Amino acid sequence: MGFDAVVANAGRLNILTALAVDERQEFVQLRQRTHLTDGNLACHAKRLAEAGLIHIDKSFRDGKPVTCLTLTAAGRAALEAHARRVLAAISHRRVAMPVSSNPAG
Q1: Which domain holds residue 27?
Q2: What CA–CA distance (Å, rounded) separates 46 from 37?
Q3: What's the predicted TM-score (pTM) here?
Q4: How far is CA 33 from CA 3, 50, 95, in A?
Q5: pLDDT at 6 over 70
Q6: Structural domains in the chain (count)
Q7: Confidence class of residue 90 from pLDDT cuts 50, 70 and 90?
Q8: Is residue 95 part of a domain?
Q9: If pLDDT is split at 50, 70 and 90, which confidence band does 100 have?
Q10: Secondary structure of 30-53 as H, E, C letters
Q11: Which of the two ends of the chain, N or C, has the fewest CB atoms closer than 10 A to its terminal CB?
Q12: pLDDT-based confidence at residue 92 (cuts at 50, 70, 90)
C-alpha cells in the first residue's frame, strides 16, 4: 500500500486539504490557513500544479498581483484516494496467532 509522494508530503497535503474545504483561494488566504511561509507555499503549489492537482491563476487587481489557487478534479481525487489509503492502513488489524497452552505445541 504505497502513498503518492506528491500528496503525502505534509506541506502539500495541508494545501490540498485547505483547498478541499474552499476550492479557490488567494495565495495570502491560503498562506494564513496553512501556516506555510511564502517560499514553502510557492514551491509546494508549483509541484502540485505540475502534477495537475491544482491550478494557479495569476492576475492583477487594482494594479496589484493576485495569485489564486484552485483544486482540480484530479487534485480532489488524489486527496480522496490518499484519505482512503490512510483509513485502510489504520483500520487494518493483524490477527494474532493463538497462544497454545501446551508448551509442546
Answers
A1: 5-86
A2: 14
A3: 0.82
A4: 24, 22, 41
A5: yes
A6: 1
A7: confident
A8: no
A9: low
A10: HHHHHCCCHHHHHHHHHHHHHCCC
A11: C
A12: confident
For residue 8, give the amino acid letter: A
Q: Does a structural domain hold residue 99?
A: no
Bridge-based pairing state of the strands 54-61 and 64-71: antiparallel
**105 within domain boundaries:** no
Task: Please report the DSSP string for the chain in residue order.
Answer: ----HHHHSHHHHHHHHHHHHSSEEEHHHHHHHHT--HHHHHHHHHHHHHTTSEEEEEEEETTEEEEEEEE-HHHHHHHHHHHHHHHHHHH--PPPPPPPSSTT-
Residue 52 has pLDDT above 90, yes or no: yes
Strand order in the sheet with 24-26: 24-26, 64-71, 54-61
Burial 5-39 (b: 16+ CB within 10 A, else e): ebbebebbbbbbebbeeeeebebeebbebbebeee
CA distance 104 to 102: 5
